[in-house]
Structure formats: structure tokens, C-alpha cells
Amino acid sequence: ILNKNCKTLIGPKYSVIDCNTKINEKLKSKVFKICFYMGGSGNLIEIYKIIKELIISKFGNLKNIQFFVVAGPYVQNLNLIRKLSNKFKFVKVVAGKKNLDKLISEVNLIVGSAGNIVYEASYYNIPCLFFEMAKNQTNNIFSMQKIGHYFVLPKNYLYSFKKISYLIYLIFIHYERIKKLSRTKELKIDNRGVQRIINSIFSFDDKNKNLKKNKILDISKNTNKSFDYKIFQVN
User: Fold this and answer.
1) Distance (Å, rounded) from C-alpha 128 to C-alpha 117?
2) In sequence order, which residues have a C-beta less than 8 Å from that of residue 49 and are 6 or more positions away?
3) Angle, CA of 17, 137 and 167, to the nearest 5°
4) Would you state the pLDDT for residue 221?
5) For a surface tag, which of 85, 93, 96, 211 has the fewest beta carbons within 10 Å of its beta carbon?
6) Are the beta carbons of 81 and 69 closer than 8 angstroms?
7) What backbone torsions phi and psi does residue 148 show, to the nearest 5 degrees?
8) Distances (CA, A) of 87 to 75, 184, 205
9) Looking at per-residue confidence, does 27 or 166 come out higher?
10) Cβ(113)–Cβ(37) under 8 Å?
């Protein structure tokens, strides 16, 4: 349905991520950190069941494990996660964060929805267990493997919380092997996607080869015209 002259800016090359934190491998080796991230909305009931099962059957007596649950602004059943957090010090709720760059860079494993975080995780070479929670998160598994993600499951698998808990435990047990797998990806994600998009938008086309960039960008000098531009808060 695209116009024949339309230029598409899609794929890992144009991923919009904000990753600037340097990785501290020594810090990572001290405590094994698992981040649960379901996006800005969604129901945390299954995450609650998974964590509870992990605590009861696998990680209850281990002191070098931490669980981080990222709570988006519209998540449901956050109160259940808070109850776990109040009871167990190694369960932490991360709420009200607009930038998760530092947290993502420090964790050892990410469990959650296969949204835009797939690119951040690939940038930091973090093993992940993803669930396709929406139609726009459905990707070809071989494409996901190219950016270092090998555990991508349909949404309904999330409801088998005991099996998922055991899978997370197996990833923990064989972590060094799985970590190496994430590092041997075919495509390397970088943090220059935004700049590539900007460069592409303001690049020369065939009709305007002599058009200078400053004439495209600089409208402030034209004082004869009034531009009806307004900035306001989105409700």
C-alpha cells in the first residue's frame, strides 16, 4: 500500500533506543538480576505467579538473586507484586521510570513482552525470554535470532507459570553458555538509529540535489510569516 516513491526506515538499523550506559561486568557477576518487563500496560498476575513459584521452588534461599519488576503506568495487579516486595527484600518494584537504560544495562536476564526492549537488550547482549503479547510483536524467529534472541514464545505460554519458572531456572543454571549465544549474534545493534532517521529525513533527494540543509531546517529567519505552532501537554 506504500507509494512507490516512499522510503521505509525499518529494521534494527533504525531502532529508536536510548542506550548510553557503560556495562560493569564485575557488578553483574556479584548478583544475578532478573528484570520482568511487560511494557507500559498489561496484567502482572502471571509475573506474580512466576516469581512466587521461583521463590518457593528455586530461589528462596539464595542471597545473590534479585528480581526487578518494571511497572508501567497502566499495569494491573501491581499490588500483588508490592506484597511480594514487602515480604522479600530481593523483589523490587521499579515504577515511574521514563528511562530504563541503566537498569537494563545492569541485569543478567530480561523476561517480558517482545516490544521495543528487544533492541535495548540486543545492544547490551542480555539473554532474554520474550512473549509475543500483541500482533505487532510477532516476528520471524530467525530474524530474532539474528539480533541475539533465542527464547521467543507465544502469549499463551505465559500462563504455564510453573514451566516458565523452570525455564528461567534452567537459563540461570546454564547462564554462561546462553550468554555466549547472545554475543554471537549476526546483526549488531548500535545506538545511532535516531541519527540515521534524522539524516535520512533531511537528506537530498533527486529533485532537490542543490537544496541546502540549513534552508530546510531554519525557518526562524523568515519573520514575514506567522506559523501557528503550539506546544501543549497531551492528556
Assistant:
1) 10
2) 161
3) 95
4) 52
5) 96
6) yes
7) 95, 20
8) 21, 39, 60
9) 166
10) yes
CA–CA dist 112, 117 (Å, integer): 9
Q: Is the dihedral of CA 46, 50, 56, 60 positive or negative?
A: negative
Give the pLDDT confidence score for residue 224 in this predicted structure. Answer: 53
Q: How long, in residues, is the chain?
A: 235
Cβ atoms of 131 and 117 within 8 Å: the answer is no
* Residue in this structure with the C-alpha cell 538480576, named with its chain if needed: 33
Here the cell at position 20 is 548510553
Q: Could you tell me what percent of the chain has a pLDDT over 90? A: 46
How many other CB atoms are found less than 10 A from the CB of residue 124? 20
Give the 3-state secondary structure of the chain. CCCCCCCCCCCHHHCCCCCCCCCCHHHHHHCEEEEEECCCEEECHHHHHHHHHHHHHHHCCCCCEEEEEEECCEEECHHHHHHHHHHCCCEEEEECCCCCHHHHHHCCEEEEECCCHHHHHHHCCCCEEEEECCHHHCCCHHHHHHCCCCCEEEHHHHHCHHHHHHHHHHHHHCHHHHHHHHHCCCCCCCCCHHHHHHHHHCCCCCCCCCCCHHHHHCCCCCCCCCCCCCCCCCC
